[in-house]
Amino acid sequence: MIPIALPSLSENEADAAREAVLSGWVSQGPQVAAFEREFAALVGAPFACAVSNCTTALHLALAALNIGPGDEVITASHSFIATANCIRYSGATPVFVDIDPDSYNIDPELVAEAITPRTRAIIAVHQMGMPCDLSSLTALAARHGVVLIEDAACAAGSEIRMNGAWERIGKPHGTIACFSFHPRKVITTGEGGMLTTGDAELDRKFRLLRQHGMSVPDTVRHGSPQVIFEDYLVVGFNYRMTDIQAAVGRKQLQRLAELIGHRRALASRYAELLGNIDGLRLPFEPPWARSNWQSYCVRLPDRLDQRTVMQHLLDRGIATRRGIMCSHREAPYADAAPRHGLRQSELAQDRSILLPIYSQMSENDQDRVVDVLLAELDS
Ligand SMILES: *Cc1c(COP(=O)(O)O)cnc(C)c1O
To answer: Is 240 contained in some domain?
Structure first.
């Protein structure tokens, strides 16, 4: 069986987890602090704050910006449902706009048309690791006085060329970027998330809000020769990452470049082997973007039925997934008719399939996927 994805975890990560378990401090502590420093250095961000997952990271981003009832947040429906849900958690209204059919990312021109006096923020998703058009989006956000938040759940290690230089997603380009370390992403801590920002005040708020609004963290009280009493300054949350997870994350971070190298090689090999097939559309990487290839998404020719193709591949031992979901089609969003057309989002969900890609994938296995897919396309 060839899986759709597979985390790359070794004895190194297992040893790190073991050490953290035996250290006597297993919740948010020194490993989390080190993971934050190393992640910030890697992406070039002034501040990085670790949390329990990317969904809570997105929620904290909106909470720290005081976005709430009456506010509108523009985002893609064509994303994992957590992107839209975090807007609902805050009490604000998600406003969905359509995607560009080539990049599967939010279309900046459609974002511009969707801005109203109530718009407070844009959440732009770097879908499947492919960077959004951040030059247009940051300019647009500045022009309208709204905040740009990057849902970089899938985009650890992805790069974008800004003003002539390659920079990692998370540097940050928008005001806040949120990452996921779920096993479906390129590096994993089991569950985990990270917020990066260049704004010291926002970083302070993330740290307060992730830990119950506590004025003095437990780590500080634990190490103090003086008795310290803490206060609870706001209604916060428990969105902490554990030191066990962070210890694993630090090892994964050391291997990020290597893991992405394998994925890039597999992506160019797919492009070689699947190029020039009539009606099959391969992912498009703009000249200013370098994807980490978290997923490899192809669009099927119109004559083929998505579910049938996926079933035939599964019957031959190859797992696939359909195109990224559309949140506006799910029950929690059924009560609000979308304000803007979402035709490209729906087509991307209905006409695309994700092919297996993971760093340990062998060329043999990739050949098998290609052979079975080509046979399907010939039928
Ligand atoms: C995976 C994902 C999330 C959620 O990340 P978790 O860490 O699982 O909470 C949010 N947005 C996008 C685009 C994702 O792919």
So the answer is: yes
- The domain containing residue 85 runs over which residues? 11-97+105-254
Tokens of 303: 């004559």
Residues 60-81 pLDDT 10s: 999 999 999 999 999 999 999 9
In a domain? residue 249: yes
Q: How close is the Cα of 56 to the center of ligand 1, in Å?
A: 10
Ligand 1 near 180 CB (within 6 A): yes
- Reported as a single tens digit per residue, the pLDDT across 286-319 is 999 999 999 999 999 999 999 999 999 999 999 9
Domain CATH code at residue 41: 3.40.640.10
Task: Count CB-CB contacts under 10 A for residue 233.
Answer: 12
Question: How confident is the model at residue 113, as a pLDDT?
Answer: 97
Structure-block tokens of residue 164 = 């002539």
- What is the tally of structural domains in the chain? 2
Atom of ligand 1 nearest to the CA of 128: 15
**What atom of ligand 1 comes closest to residue 125's alpha carbon?**
13
Strands (E), the chain: 47-51, 72-76, 93-97, 119-125, 147-151, 159-162, 165-168, 176-180, 193-197, 289-290, 296-299, 321-322, 352-355
* Pair of tokens at residue 125: 């998703």
Nearest C-alpha neighbor of 198 from the set 51, 47, 40: 47
* Chain segment 152-193, per-residue pLDDT in tens: 999 999 999 998 999 999 998 999 999 999 999 999 999 999
Residue 151 Cβ < 6 Å to ligand 1: yes
Residue 2 lies in a domain: no
On whether the CB atoms of residues 238 and 211 are closer than 8 A, the answer is yes
Mean pLDDT (the chain, rounded): 97
User: To the nearest whole percent, how much of the chain has pLDDT over 90?
Assistant: 95
Q: How far is the CA of 317 from the centre of ligand 1 (A)?
A: 27
Cβ–ligand 1 distance for 80 under 6 Å, the answer yes
